[in-house]
């Protein structure tokens, strides 16, 4: 992972909560530390089953989700997260090739490993602070 942008140069969020789901302890803890420094609240899970339990207990504003996990993989987790909160912005994190089309069809953002942390932080900021528009369509659904 690349180093994060300094807090002085990044926009400070308003206490938004991000769910970080990754079975790799180093990635999960690293993302947690970076996001906390950036001013976000963070909940973590090491697999999709834990992620669903976390989201049932506490609302989150965005999910960062590894695709290759035990118990419930990323695509299965996305489907279940959408059942719990169809508006939840999701950013998938993957080293798997050729996932862009699937991500677009699922209405999720995609970041490839190794992660570009400044780009990830910009994407998170854009997803959590979208431009105000009157017609909002849930992710993964076609606009009318």
Task: Detail the topology: elements first, then pairings.
Layout: E1 17-21, H1 25-37, E2 41-45, H2 48-57, E3 62-66, H3 74-84, E4 90-94, H4 100-106, E5 109-112, H5 117-128
Parallel strand pairs: 1-2, 1-3, 3-4, 4-5
Walkthrough of the structure:
This protein is of the alpha/beta class. The chain has one domain: Response regulator (Rossmann fold, 3-Layer(aba) Sandwich). It contains five helices and five strands; from the N terminus they run E-H-E-H-E-H-E-H-E-H. It has helices at 25-37, 48-57, 74-84, 100-106, 117-128, and strands at residues 17-21, 41-45, 62-66, 90-94, 109-112. It has a five-stranded parallel beta sheet with strand order 2-1-3-4-5, sandwiched between helices. Helix 2 (48-57) runs parallel beside helix 3 (74-84). Mean pLDDT is 83; it is low at 2-10.
In what range is the share of β-strand residues?
A: 15-25%
Q: Please give the order of strands in the largest beta sheet.
A: 2-1-3-4-5
The CATH C-level name is Alpha Beta
CATH architect. name: 3-Layer(aba) Sandwich
Number of helices: 5
Element order: H for helix, E for strand = EHEHEHEHEH
3D shape: globular
The largest sheet, given as strand count, sense and whether it forms a barrel, is: 5 strands, parallel
Contiguous runs where pLDDT drops below 50 for at least 5 residues: 2-10
Helix content: 25-40%
Mean pLDDT over all positions: 83
Please report the distance between the alpha carbons of the first and last residues.
Answer: 39 Å
CATH topology: Rossmann fold
Number of strands: 5
Within CATH, the superfamily carries the name Response regulator
C-alpha Rg (nearest Å):
14 Å
Number of domains: 1
Structural class: alpha/beta
């Amino acid at each position: 992972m690349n180093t994060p942008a300094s807090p002085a140069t990044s926009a400070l969020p308003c206490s938004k909560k991000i769910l970080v789901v990754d079975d790799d302890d180093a990635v999960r803890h690293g993302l947690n530390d970076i996001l906390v420094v950036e001013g976000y609240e963070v909940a973590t899970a090491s697999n999709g089953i834990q992620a669903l339990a976390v989201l049932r207990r506490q609302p989150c504003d965005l999910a960062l989700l590894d695709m290759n996990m035990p118990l419930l993989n990323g695509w299965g987790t996305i489907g279940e997260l959408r059942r719990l909160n169809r508006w939840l912005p999701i950013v998938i994190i993957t080293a798997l090739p050729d996932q862009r089309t699937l991500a677009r069809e699922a209405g999720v953002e995609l970041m490839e490993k190794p992660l570009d942390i400044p780009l990830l932080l910009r994407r998170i900021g854009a997803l959590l602070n979208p431009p105000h528009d009157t017609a909002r369509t849930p992710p993964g659904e076609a606009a009318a």
